[in-house]
Amino acid sequence: MLIGILVMVLLITIIGVIFVNTSPQFGGNQSEESLIKIKNSPNYNGDGAFKNQELTLASTGFKWSSIPKFFTNGNNKVPSGVLPQNKLTTEYFENEPKEPRITWFGHSALFLEMDQLNIFIDPMLGNVPAPHPLLGGSRFNKELPISIENLPEIDLVLISHDHYDHLDYGSIQQLKDKVKLFYVPLGIKAHLTEWGISSEKIKEFDWWESAKIKGVEFVSTPARHFSGRGFKRNNTLWCSWVIKSENNSIYFSGDSGYGKHFKDIGEKYGPFDFAMMECGQYDEQWAHIHMMPEETVQASIDVQAEVIMPIHWGAFKLALHEWTDPIERSIKKAKELNVKMATPIIGEAVVVNKDYPSLDWWK
User: Fold this and answer.
1) What is the pLDDT of residues 79-128, one digit of tens each?
2) N or C: which end of the chain has fewer CB within 10 A?
3) Closest CA to 100 of 111, 87, 89, 88
């Protein structure tokens, strides 16, 4: 019996190694050009990994008893039915808004129209946030607000980090011919070039580096998180994004635990008209790398955001909390701290400086 168990473990290990080394999902290796910039980064620790600005533990009290709970959908961890969402048409994107317009695709995928630019942030549009469909749970809604082929041309894709729920191989494959440019944190260029995207279309950023397109500035700002695909950990950088034009200023938190970087960003680039803030997939077992909803609201105050929109929820089960907890808890805290909040359904337009959606649609 012992020999049988050992043989089974060996077979599983071999299959896993073969899968990681042959599947395109896991991306590519760094070019010499990228490695030079990575090794010169002040955010690189010299041991082959990027680091956070403050002590950050991936695990803050792991409990073995929680493992079985990840394999069940009970206790309201997923919705009981299809979530409401707006169906979009090609005409929707042809009616160009005068103010920045944000359309939520669920989780952290956001389509931003601003100053005649089409910007897609973390466009994870696939069904399962994992390298293989058997390794993760399905999207709450099977359909997107609009099919990928009916999306308009995209001037820029912004990526925050390389986890599967933010950088999806299948989505990039379907989008890449529509996209003019990709802005990514250090190291992620290797994944995109491995997936057939020309290196000329990709620009890598360290924290606090910026670039402009048609007068709109894009700044890669810190986040408190980690990265990794396959067996690799922290060999690519993670970030949040500041998007500033002459008239508007928008912030996207990416994935992040609460930390001092939010005040730093607010002092350097705030105030912000609107902020999309991570709020979901949290747990006390990994409290340094994802915010609790109450911390999300405080972080929005730190970055000096006038209005916030909770993201990183409403599409996938990646934690153990009830699927409505992120929005319920953040709304409660926002009321306590007098923070304005937008709560659109998936596919609903959020127009900056206009009336913001506020229906309790998840109820």
Assistant:
1) 999 999 999 999 999 988 899 999 999 999 999 999 999 999 999 999 99
2) N
3) 111
Tokens read off for 190: 């290797």
Tokens linked to 70: 């990840």
CA distance linking residue 110 with residue 93, whole number of Å? 14
Please report which confidence band the pLDDT of residue 18 belongs to, taking 50, 70 and 90 as the band edges. low
Note the pLDDT tens digit of each residue in 169-178. 999 999 999 9
Sheet holding 240-244, edge to edge: 210-213, 216-221, 240-244, 249-252, 274-278, 307-311, 340-341
Q: What is the pLDDT of residue 230?
A: 85
The candidate with the shortest Cα–Cα distance to 290, out of 57, 122, 67, is 57
How far is it, in rounded angstroms, from Cα 251 to Cα 241? Answer: 6
Ranges of each domain in the chain = 32-351
* Nearest Cα residue to 159 out of 104, 220, 209, 101: 220
Q: What is the pLDDT of residue 101?
A: 98
> Is this structure's pTM higher than 0.90?
yes
29: left (phi over 0), alpha (psi -120 to 50) or beta: beta
Q: Which residues contact 317 (CB under 8 A, 6 or more apart)?
A: 73, 77, 78, 137, 323
The burial class, CB within 10 Å (0-12 / 13-18 / 19+), for 59 is exposed
Architecture of domain 32-351: 4-Layer Sandwich (3.60)
